[in-house]
Amino acid sequence: MSVEDAAAKVNQMSALAPLPVTPPSGPKQRIAYLDNARYWVMLLVVIGHSLTELVVMDSARGVYTWIYAFHMPLFILISGYTARHYVGDLHQIRRLIGTLVVPYLLVELSLQLITRHYDGHPDRLMVLSPQWVGWFMAALIIWRLTTPIWRALKYPITTSIVISLASGLIEIPNALALHKTIAFLPFYVIGLHMSRERFLRLGAWNLRVASAAFLGLTFVICQFVRFPSSSQWLLWKNSYAEMEVDPGEGLAIRAGLLLLGLAMTAAALSLVPRRRSWTTAQGERTFYCYLLHGFVIIWLDRHYDLWARIEPYGAPAVLGCIVASIVLATLLMTPPVKRVFHPLFEPKLTWLFRSADESPRVRIPT
User: Fold this and answer.
1) How far apart are alpha carbons 240 and 341 in whole angstroms?
2) 350 found inside a domain
3) Domain count along the chain
């Protein structure tokens, strides 16, 4: 199936269930299924980041390639679904500033200061050029603000795919991780047009069997097949010229990655448990894990040179990294971590915004 056919099918599905144009009334209810998915995808995020320094080894490269083929598409699609009611009202703007802009500034500036302390760069703080985990926060801000546009377009998914493919044809600066933001855009837009019923439909037993087989097959392939420059393609941040391929080849590779990411995302969602469990509560706090795990990894790497020390141990070192990453991620999703960092990462900012019952007076010139 071509990218255009896949996009048309998803667009047709989205037309059957139009998105509401106003936020739902009453308290927001969390979906246990999606919180379970957040927990598992956050484990993949931390594992992937912990293996970055070990990809020179075959045992790490295969796991890394498999994770990076779909972990961010999965995370982004869920983020799109949870943002489907965004219309830019006062409450939503306050929340966007408090839970995205402020954490982005805190985490990005802190990480840049730490890396400058250890590595001597960047020479100056580049608040608009995220260096590592901050890119996702920057992308979420842009995606969230443009949500009304993707809801207004007649063919939003097709449009987002065309933009993603075309973005590789030109050089795009790293301002707010713009290239990655645009390249990953289709997964966010598809998430906007998902519904709870479609998520749950993925849990049919025959789909779950096929999904397990598909993910298992892709994992095996990643272990035994070497993909040239795969790690750079999977970062979605370079133009086709930077990847040293002609435009036609670049378009084909990115289209293939879009289809692969979407297929693996659907397979992973098919296998996520539907019932509430201990992973559900953990999945409600993935925000804190994402923001904090980078500090732990950088500290262990720069202060103790941990990855260089364990690299000679080969496959056991990779397995140890995976186990340690699971433990770290799970600990960073616990209630004590949220209590400590909640004032920093989710400030109320009552001093900055008008109250809900205040309305600005607008004078219309005569």
Assistant:
1) 40
2) no
3) 1
